[in-house]
Amino acid sequence: MSSRLKARGIIPRKSLGQNFLADDATARRIVDASEVGRNDLVFEIGPGAGALTTHLVKRAGWVVAVELDQTLISTLREELGEARNVTIVHGDALKVDFIQLAQEAAHAFGKPFGAIRFVANLPYYITSAAIRRILECGLSIATIVLTVQTEVAERVTAQPPDMSLLAVSVQFYGRPDLLFRIPPSQFYPQPGVESAVLRIRLHNQPPDVDAQKLFRVVKAGFSQPRKQLRNTLTAGLGVTKAQAEAALRQSGIEPDRRAETLSLEEWKRLTNYLC
């Protein structure tokens, strides 16, 4: 990877958090984890020099690769060679219209896709925003496979009493699993932290609680770390302490518990009582 990039005069940009996957065996493992099939549409965020893309185009029906760095586009096209089932988009994954891109890909593919999947080696500085953007993009997604900082993967997959706002936000939409870890030595340049591959399988059934209401309650609960829920809900939602305590008890939750100890189901019950 380093020699290919240097030959093209490309220097990884720290400002974009560029750490290119340089181990082909690991790239194949990541693509295997995505469970992509011949009739599937895959969105790849940050394809870089094509370490994952070269495998994805061989397995997917169509690949939409969204790359922010214009200098990498020509390199990516060279790596993909004559592959015809790929659209390379120069754009910001936090801003592009995934629904429109999916419609354009379906037109090019000529028939409905079997499933829609996302794969990404995310720059660490946009991880949370990118995950939220994907989950809320409006598409019916089967799986999301992300290479993220190990600490983030552990936060996303946490269970009570170690929940976080990020964990609740992701688990509301799907079931996350930390599949395997990747040492810094498998990237160019080497990052200063260990990475991990996170897979999120989206729930088949629609949520049984309004998302906007749930996240308003959850954000209020996590707004003051290490404080009791009776206090955080009072401050965050503008209710009285008596109202907060009543809603918590009706939900089967002791008012002196803290946000990180609640399960997703408890947050749903609490939302229904409060809203």
Annotated CATH architecture of the largest domain: 3-Layer(aba) Sandwich
The top level CATH class name of the largest domain: Alpha Beta
Tell me roughly what share of residues is in helical segments: 40-55%
**Which residue ranges are poorly predicted, with pLDDT under 50 across at least 5 consecutive positions?**
none
How would a crystallographer describe the biggest sheet? 7 strands, mixed
CATH topology of the largest domain: Rossmann fold
The name of the CATH superfamily of the largest domain reads Vaccinia Virus protein VP39
Number of strands: 9
Outline type = elongated
Cα distance, first to last residue? 53 Å
Strand fraction band?
Answer: 15-25%
- If you average the pLDDT, what whole number results? 93
Number of separate helices: 12
How many domains make up the 3D coordinates?
2
| Structural class determined from secondary elements | alpha/beta
What is the H-and-E element order?
HEHEHEHEHEHEHHEEEHHHH
Strand order of the largest sheet: 4-3-2-5-6-9-7
Rounded to an integer in angstroms, the radius of gyration calculated over CA atoms is 21 Å
